[in-house]
Write the structure tokens for this entry.
Amino acid sequence: MTTSPSAVSGIGATQGAMAGHAKPASQKRRRNRIVWWIVLVAGIGYFVLPLIATFQVSLGMTVPFKAYTNTFNDPKFWWSLIYSAFCAVLTILAASLLIVPTAYWVRLKVPRMRPAIEFITLLPFVVPPVVLVFGLVRLYGGGPPLQLPLTSTDIGGTFLLVAAYVVLSLPYMYRSVDTGLRAIDIQSLTEAAQSLGAGWPTIIVRVILPNVRLAVLGGAFLTFAIVMGEYTIANFLFRPAFGPYLSLLGRTKTFEPAAVSLISFGLTWLAMGMIALIGRKSRGRVTVVGVK
């Protein structure tokens, strides 16, 4: 079988056109790859360079790493760090118990209420923390109208602090959980669990929560970071949190604040890494558990 010269020329022209199109496409991909590498390096430099500068400041004492040894030997550092971590854990648990059932019920039964719920969860962005804490002190300081002196006791002050932190975490926790619920078929999961005899508490705890665990952990990351660095509310409630301790240290010391900042940064990322490790087993798993 022979091929005519016109056919050969047509095939050659087609191949040349395809090669001409492939070459600009490969060049475009190469340029995009270079741009993304530039953006990545710039982003890493934006976060890493301040840490390097802070580390250099922390080494400014005559004895190397003396600021770190002074920090580790300070009992107030450990107490404030443990106290803030404890408040962060309580905040995450309280916010999860509040947000997960609410977001689930709104998406399942009353979807028309979603705009109102989203507006309520956005209020912490509108109301400054200083206004929130002054309202808490005025309302729960022992005067009228409630006559509840919560601010005069350690337990009451910690309760108010955690409650305020739950309010601050609402925008992050609700949107994270709502996104997780959107990714699963809650209607089918609910009907399957009910067909197996599960009640509403069992459905939420053993069906919905395992399937949105990664979403809850995503909100927990941001909540933990916010609580560890929060200053205004803890300061006005006179709580021994890490934020007020770091501020006081910055007014009385020179090199220790830089060391404390790096230590808290590392411990915070370590804690969030442990949270991520705990939730890794639930990735990609859909669970329906009935009641015998």
